[in-house]
Amino acid sequence: MTVPVGTVASRRAFLAAAGAGIVTGVTGCRSVLLGDSSSGASAAAGSVEEWVRSRRAPYFIAHRGEGDVYPEHTMPSYRAAVDAGARALEVSTSSSKDDVLVCMHDLTLDRTTNTSGPVKARSWAELQDVAVVQPQLGPRWTTPPLTRIPSLEEVLEAFAGKTVLCLEAKVDIDYPLLVELVEKRGLQKSVVFKFFHMSSRIADAKAAGYPVFVYLGSDDASEEAIRDAASGLDRTTDYLVLPTTTLDGADLPDAAVRTAVGTGVSTWVYPVHRRSEAKRYQDLGAEGIITSSLEYVRETSPLATSDQWASKAIAPGEMTRHPDRAENGPSWTSQDELTLARDGAQRFLTLGQLAPVANAQGRYSISFEARWNKLPTDVAAGGFTLAFGHVDDAYYEHRLGAGDGYHAICRADGSLSIFSHTRGSADGFQLSGTSQAPIRTGQWMSMRLEVTPSTLVWSRLGTSDVASVVATDARFRGGYLHIGRHSADGSLSLRRLRVDPV
């Protein structure tokens, strides 16, 4: 059974209507630090030739639209990317039982919709009753009106002439349908055809004069496979595309990227969720950044000063370790309340929508409320953490050793501590700490961190057992933040998080 699908306004329109509390939490946009020479689409943006002529590295390709923030491969997601200035849009297609091309990454409906089964088993009329539902994006996108699967025809109608389209038929047998639709609309000069590196259709597209985007998967991006894929590509028109992670979730090795760049074919990487990832691959020589969060990664999203959880939707830059995985997402347990409850691992959120903190080198405070709905099994070690002082948005959790900064801890036994941590070391160094009475479930706690150029103050406020710890340390004053549950179990709710000057 499927949920009725309706039209949906853009996320910007939704947030604008969500109330003054959200609007006042935004301070405006920062300058573009990375990106194409043009900040937005123009009438010529739909031409591959014009895009190539005017872009400069690194340039950006929108991945599944704005797939970290909107339901992937839907009209709201594509529209948000184009509105954010996407000059190239990646679109994957599958086909219905009656050979209508629809925008969908998978060949089944299981992962991203409210039903299951092969896409090919349903007619286009039947697919129009299917909703795209991705819980990790927030309840805004899982309650009516829901977004639906668009046809490729709809996407071409809406965006042809506004952006370059990187089009893929997920199965080679659908490639002729794709070409037919492109040529029927006269879009031959506006598309790059996208293929898995083992596709038999690469030669067909090149023989017809189309530029191609050839990608490798996380399980086969060896240096040998990279060189082999590049050997059939034109250095002036084609693109060699690498995954950002290996099959086990590790970052793609530097050597693989350097091998691709060394072939002389323009190298792109996918999917990029973080600004720190974009910088890493840019530094290694990648020219194209395929990102699921274009506005955030390019640093053109508004800088917020408070959470936007009342919108019931993930904000640009607000992400878990793997933003595209439903099992990692937070849940909304009240109108403005976010909960981290899934057991089995630490659960942290990168607060990219608040970063970099405007006054990171000076004085600022971070305040929020926290409540344990269920305490961690190990109350002496388990608790929640606010990590701060980082120079970039590389993911943080305890003992990962991924960056320099601080972490302020409130353990379930009531103790407060401030630690420093450094890149390459799993162990933190305690700067200050104090013991307090154990925390009770169901009770909201008001927490506050105050940062000055030389001191750090971490406090629990507003109860009979008020406590503070102070550390004197001036080493790390980056503007990126993380918050989360550092224990492998327990249910933690958060609300009313904000950043203020002091």
UniProtKB/TrEMBL annotation:
Q: Name one GO biological process term.
A: lipid metabolic process
Q: Where does the GP-PDE domain start and stop, copy by copy?
A: 58-301
Source organism, top-level taxon: Bacteria
User: Single GO molecular-function term?
Assistant: phosphoric diester hydrolase activity
This protein's name: Glycerophosphodiester phosphodiesterase
The major lineage groups are: Bacteria, Bacillati, Actinomycetota, Actinomycetes, Propionibacteriales
